Amino acid sequence: MGQQENAPDPVDVRLGARLAELRAEHGWSLGELAERSGVSRSTLSRAERAETSPTASLLNRLCAVYGRTMSQLLSEVEAEPAPVVRTADQPVWQDRASGFVRRSVSPPHAGLRGELVEGRLTAGADISYDRPPVPGLEQHIWVLEGALAVTAGGAEHRLDPGDCLRLRVWGPTRFRCPGPGDVRYVLAVVRP
């Protein structure tokens, strides 16, 4: 039983392998990737070996370096997407450290520019991204339950159920669940 608990998550293993492949495709050492991403060599190495589950912030930094959205990266470790994605087949990824759960409702597809993501944050969760994975990324954030505070372009937007924030992301963003309960929202992402 102890060995099962310490076994890496299969998604983390595939994700780590894909991160190592991307670095190799670019011909970068861990040191070069660390310089480009601002992430330490040891953290990058542990993520590539699936010794740790990468955080949303870490994946965002790597996506920015590789010029892809987080959904694109996560879809690369899943099977080829089907035109209809049943609820049970929608990939779910968790950032346990921050309380963020991300479900790819309509995973990215090579021929399409848009995708839908369901996000969930626990009360008090606070996630900051230092840059968009792709500059100029269009986002529509529609709150279904709870409250969400989104900071972008130096302005904070408080969103309640039914509210929708539309923006293009060029700089840092922050997603915060002020509580008292959790928040559930839809994120529509459109690549430029």
Structure in words:
The longest helix is centred in the first third of the chain and has 16 residues, at 10-25. The mean pLDDT is 88. It contains six helices and ten strands; from the N terminus they run ααααααββββββββββ. The chain has 192 residues and is α+β, with helices and mostly antiparallel strands.
* Helix proportion range: 25-40%
Strand content of the residues, in percent? 25-35%
Structural category is alpha+beta
C-alpha end-to-end distance: 47 Å
The total strand number stands at 10
Rg of Cα set: 17 Å
Overall shape: it is: globular
Q: Topology as H/E string?
A: HHHHHHEEEEEEEEEE
Largest sheet: 6 strands, antiparallel
- The DSSP helix count reads 6
- Can you give the mean pLDDT? 88
Low-confidence stretches: none
- What kind of assembly state do the chains in view correspond to? single chain
The order of strands across the largest sheet is 1-2-3-10-5-8
Ordered list of secondary-structure elements with their pairings:
Blueprint: H1 2-6, H2 10-25, H3 30-37, H4 41-48, H5 56-66, H6 70-75, E1 92-95, E2 100-106, E3 114-121, E4 126-129, E5 137-145, E6 148-152, E7 155-159, E8 164-169, E9 173-176, E10 183-190
Antiparallel strand pairs: 1-2, 2-3, 3-10, 4-9, 5-8, 5-10, 6-7, 6-9
Write a compact overview of the structure shown:
This protein is an alpha+beta fold and 192 residues long. The protein is 28% helix and 31% strand. A six-stranded antiparallel sheet has the order 1-2-3-10-5-8, with no helix packed on it. The protein has a four-stranded antiparallel sheet with strand order 4-9-6-7.
